Amino acid sequence: AAAAAAAAPSPRRRPLSTAVDAPASVTPEQMERDKRYAGTAEVPESLRRGGGGGEGGGGGGEFSIRGQSKEGRAVYLDMSATTPLDPRVLDAMAPYMIGSYGNPHSRTHMYGWESERIVETARSQISSLIGASPKEVVFTSGATESNNMSIKGVAKFYGKKGKKRHVITTQTEHKCVLDSCRSLEMEGYDVTYLPVQRATGRVDLNELASAMRDDTVLVSVMAVNNEIGTRQPMEEIGAMCRERKVFFHCDAAQMLGKMPMDVNEMKVDLMSMSSHKVYGPKGIGALYVRRRPRVRLDPIFSGGGQERGLRSGTLPHFLCAGFGAACELAQKEMAYDTEWIGYLSDRLKRGIEEKIPEVTQNGDPEHNYPGCLNYSFAYVEGESLLMALKNIAVSSGSACTSASLEPSYVLRALGVDDELAHSSLRFGIGRFSTEAEVDFVLELLEKHVARLREMSPLWEMVQEGIDLKEIQWSQDAH
């Protein structure tokens, strides 16, 4: 069955050559663009079969995927951590990296006017993607800064008189959100960390309603979780916050450009965005700040008062241009990318669940972003599996906490026990991912999970039919 499914034509199958079989929804212009970036070289057998570069492959051949040449490098399936720069985004940035060097805040000469025009064009491109006004987009260095600005800025502005000093967030937010809330707690603010539903990782709307108080100033919930891909009920949360006159902040770093969004339909008041999650350059992000009804926040930087006084500092206009170009591409090709990523995600998911026993998908399989899959492989230690998969770039959780040996706090919040949390891997699929890469990952996963389990006494007991839950394990007295 698996072989038949793998052989079936994909909805927008990207073969190992320049030919592209696009769905009916794809325009001729998009097909031409796809052919340009598809590359001409077939994926070599060394990649697919484990030859050439040593065990597991990936080191002996060269192949191209839509403008990205790979030679002797691991297969990249960590798109939730960061995405490669789209070559067309680089094309959009290049003219402004040398030729246009004026300060965009210099209003007295043509060099400044030229750079300002570049920035404002990018602002319009970003606002168009999210259904906002360009005047509501504030440039930052990334989503981490945007999250800090939103949480600390709103709480401090409205908490000055001591009336609005309560913030609500969830236990599965990005670390920068949780740390911003802890920083507020040290200053005397009250923060409620809502648990999430154990089966799905979604917010319980009844618990959120119960947590709101008269002094609640802000609710901060991420749109799509960066570790498990779960999508929160943003429209319902936004409506609830608007009704209670509570500001709603959304970390949309993992959703921007990947799923349709409209800030007015979601009723968000502040929304954090990141360029490098949407095939744009690193070092640039944005914060949506609603103008009507107006949201006020204290700036966290002191300086020249750029960006409507909310974020001081000279803007890198060429990075702004790259971010804007990435958003424009995402808006034009979202349906195209969604279909391709969904197809590859189903291929990977089906392969894992059919070829490898005792696996568990973490998160909500229904309300999720398909490009982020998180699986736990029972009776396998996660770090050992990562080391075995040296020719595949995946992660065991958020890139921001990947140096920690502790199990993922996101999986803990879902009720996943430490052993399974330690055995989890996150797979990130994106615009440049290919069928060959997914098949290669499945091949190595099946091989190395089986090999590592052969060394596990617990796996041997399970194979013999022993119920591990019935065993009374002895405890060392000291």
UniProtKB/TrEMBL annotation:
EC annotation from Swiss-Prot or TrEMBL: 2.8.1.7
In this chain, composition skew of type Gly residues spans 49-62
**Cofactors per UniProt?**
pyridoxal 5'-phosphate
Look up keyword Transferase and say if it applies: yes
Supply one GO BP term: [2Fe-2S] cluster assembly
Q: Keywords in alphabetical order, please.
A: Iron, Iron-sulfur, Metal-binding, Pyridoxal phosphate, Transferase
Q: Which residues form the Aminotransferase class V domain?
A: 75-439
Pfam families named among the record's database cross-references = Aminotran_5 (PF00266)
GO molecular function terms noted in the UniProt entry: cysteine desulfurase activity; iron-sulfur cluster binding; metal ion binding; pyridoxal phosphate binding
Q: What class of enzyme is it?
A: transferase
Annotated segments matching region Disordered = 1-66
Q: Which Gene3D superfamilies match?
A: Aspartate Aminotransferase, domain 1 (3.90.1150.10), Type I PLP-dependent aspartate aminotransferase-like (Major domain) (3.40.640.10)
Could you name the Gene Ontology cellular component terms for this entry?
L-cysteine desulfurase complex; mitochondrion
Regarding protein family, the annotation reads:
Belongs to the class-V pyridoxal-phosphate-dependent aminotransferase family. NifS/IscS subfamily.
Q: PANTHER family of this UniProt entry? A: CYSTEINE DESULFURASE, CYSTEINE DESULFURYLASE FAMILY MEMBER
Name of the protein described by the UniProt record: cysteine desulfurase
